[in-house]
Amino acid sequence: MADRSFDGGKIPEGTATHVEEGAMRQWTIQIILGLLVLAAGVLLLVETVLSDQVPGLLWAGLLAAGSAAFWYAYFAHRSWWWSAIPAGALLGAAIAPVMELDPDGAGQWTEVPFLAAVSTGFWAVYLQDHRRWWAVIPGGALLTLAVVSGVTDAVGGQGTGAILLLGLAVTFVLVAMLPSGSSRRRWAWIVAAALAAVALVVVLQTAELLIVLNYLWPVAVIGGGAYLVWSAWRRRHAEHKYTRTQNTPTETGTL
Q1: Where are the extended beta strands (E) located within the chain?
Q2: Does 211 reside within a domain?
Q3: Quick one: DSSP state of residue 134?
Q4: Count of C-beta atoms within a 10 Å radius of residue 105
């Protein structure tokens, strides 16, 4: 294999090509981001000088382009894992101006897709490398806030608090259970249990949700009984199979 000089030394041609391709991608991304920032500055200057607001769709397109550039960086360079976070944030910011075109409808829920989009950035960080388990915490918290923002009017203040606490509890359960490339984080179970306990207290203080619990409690009891029956049957079946295997005569022969 032919060698090519690189920084005063020689490296294999295939490696040099890979380095050059990586440098070209990085250069392209920086140029695109620079142009987008330049365009954003021009729009801000226009709004300031002309005292006129730039159309929301124009901002949405610019923000979406910025999000696409960061997502490209995330997939093109493994070392640029952090770019998923601004990619998600810009995506959420791009959705908001479009929803605001309907102020009496979708415009009232702009924070829901924004928080959910920012959450996807953190989940992408974790999915690329499970050793970055810390990204699950902001990812789950932001997703919980998105849900809370969407149901606040329907469930009221106490219900919203219960959902927030339960969502955070589930987040820490995921922190404890999801793979991370290292030992399990058992401390997360303690945090999850504490949050779930507080959420239960809040739920019990909410009359509307207490009515729901009146239906969920019998279902939970039925599910628990069904699990006990199934577990006993499975254990009995395994013991019977083992006993039958032990009692089966084996054929012996001489070689």
Answers
A1: 3-6, 9-12
A2: no
A3: G
A4: 9
Distances (CA, A) of 231 to 224, 225, 226, 228, 237: 10, 10, 8, 5, 10
Query: How far does Cα 4 stand from its chain's mean position?
Result: 43
Domain count, the chain: 1
**In this structure, is residue 178 part of a structural domain?**
no
Please say if the pLDDT value at position 25 is more than 50: yes
Residues 214-236 pLDDT 10s = 667 677 788 888 888 888 888 87
CA torsion 109-160-132-126 (nearest 10°) is -40
Cα distances (Å, whole numbers) of residue 156 to 149, 160, 197: 11, 6, 20
Do residues 60 and 97 make contact, with C-beta atoms less than 8 angstroms apart? yes
**Helix H or strand E segment including 199:** helix 187-204
Domain coverage including residue 113: 1-128
- Angle subtended by helix axes 13-50 and 56-76, to nearest 10: 160
What pLDDT is attached to residue 26? Answer: 72
22 beta partners: none
Cα-based distances in Å from 144 to 133, 138, 151, 171, 187:
17, 10, 11, 9, 21
pTM: 0.68
pLDDT, tens digit (0-9, with 9 covering 90-100), for 32-73: 878 888 877 877 777 777 666 767 788 888 889 989 989 988
